[in-house]
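STRUCTURE REQUEST FORM
Protein name: Prepilin-type cleavage/methylation protein
Source organism: Cetobacterium somerae ATCC BAA-474
Requested output: structure tokens
Priority: standard
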Amino acid sequence: MNKNKKNKGLTFLETIACVAIIFIVSSFLFYKILKYNEKMDLEKSRRIIQTFFIKYTMRSLYEKSKYQIEIDMLNKNLNVKKLNSEIIEKLYLPEKLKYEIIYDNSRNQKFKVDTTKNGNLSKAFTMYIFGYSNQVENRVAFYTFQKERVLKINIYLNRDVKDVNYENILNYHYSQNGQNRIGWMEE
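Status: completed
Returned output:
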């Protein structure tokens, strides 16, 4: 047998090393794709919510009529109807995210608010949007300043809020950090 002849096949260890490298690279890519999808879903939900409310408060202002908006956190949709009529429009929010509105010291799975004839809302409230891991990611604040007569929506991005998730959002919202918006950056 010729000792100069090279082995053209892979050894068992070389095969295992190749499989491990492929697994590590694919895991990294999967994580990056998942984070990218979460980022896109968060952005999409913020834009849907903001556009929806602006559309119907402005419509109220121009038409001098009122609309009722219902936010259904369980079914993840926004409904609007003229008072005492059927639904005019229904928009769906990204399914993998969670949403919560804190109002009157409680969590609200369905939240109703009316528009006013002067382009505002009947009540101010805050909506939280949670990422895929149930950590709070966005805070959407609806302000109803009577002097301005027009709805003001501020969107905040989580920059340094730690350990706040879907389960403990009520406690956080009424805490000192929550009230002062510590760790949030306005978009």
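Reviewer notes: The domain at 12-186 is CATH 3.55.40.10 (minor pseudopilin epsh fold). The first strand starts at residue 67 and ends at 72.
Form closed.
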